[in-house]
Amino acid sequence: MTIKNGDAPDSKLGAVRRSTHDWLTRLTHLSDTLLHCPADIATRCELAMLLEDLGQHEEALVNWKAVLTSEPNNLVAREGAARCRRWLGRSLQSPI
Asked: pTM for the complete prediction?
């Protein structure tokens, strides 16, 4: 049996490690950006989406609420907050 470059037994583990490194790098970058500019809505939304993808719904909800404090009619943030509330088993009518 010939093992090709991508078929090595550890190739899946390597992909997971690269993936983990990628999201960790992105998470760090977004957090650093918000330290310097906490009112950056686009960055906060991106961070909230990444946190949702990572299953960190409580932290994502905190960020969605921060967006809604600045922009109460932000549809992306409203939808994100609703998704997080559903995941957390909270009422969709919860106060922001």
From this structure: 0.74
